[in-house]
Design goal:
about 120 residues, alpha+beta, two-stranded antiparallel ribbon, about 20% helix, about 15% strand
Length: about 120
């Protein structure tokens, strides 16, 4: 697999757009782990020298990625989900607006058919 990135096209306009999208995503991120406060990107710049990027491995994600953590555990009573959380848990085909109880070690997110894990080496000069 190979691809070419035209680094010179990643200008200030693109950086501002990516920054706005990231801030919008972080603002709507629920539930957020209890140890994290507000997350925002204050400045984004791609620089003028592209990094060296090497794909080391492309595999299925580790099973542990889908397991619930203590932050995923909810009370025994179902509670409404925010629209952003519905999208993150159920994708665009959300068919439920309520979160059922999850226990540590149980699946918190179902594995998607197209889920992949990328291991890459990135070097900046």
């Amino acid at each position: 697999m190979s691809f070419q990135i035209f680094w010179e096209k990643l200008d200030r306009k693109v950086a501002l757009s990516v920054q706005a999208q990231l801030n919008s995503f972080f603002a709507s991120l629920e539930p957020r782990p209890s140890f994290l406060g507000e997350i925002s990107v204050e400045q984004l710049d791609f620089g003028s020298v592209p990094p060296q990027f090497e794909i080391i491995d492309l595999t299925e994600p580790f099973p542990e990625f889908y397991l619930a953590t203590e932050d995923d555990v909810v009370s025994s009573a179902p509670r409404p989900l925010s629209p952003a959380t519905q999208r993150s848990y159920f994708g665009s085909q959300a068919d439920t607006a309520y979160q059922t109880p999850i226990l540590p070690g149980e699946l918190a997110v179902e594995r998607g058919e197209d889920d992949m894990q990328l291991v890459a080496k990135v070097e900046y000069c």
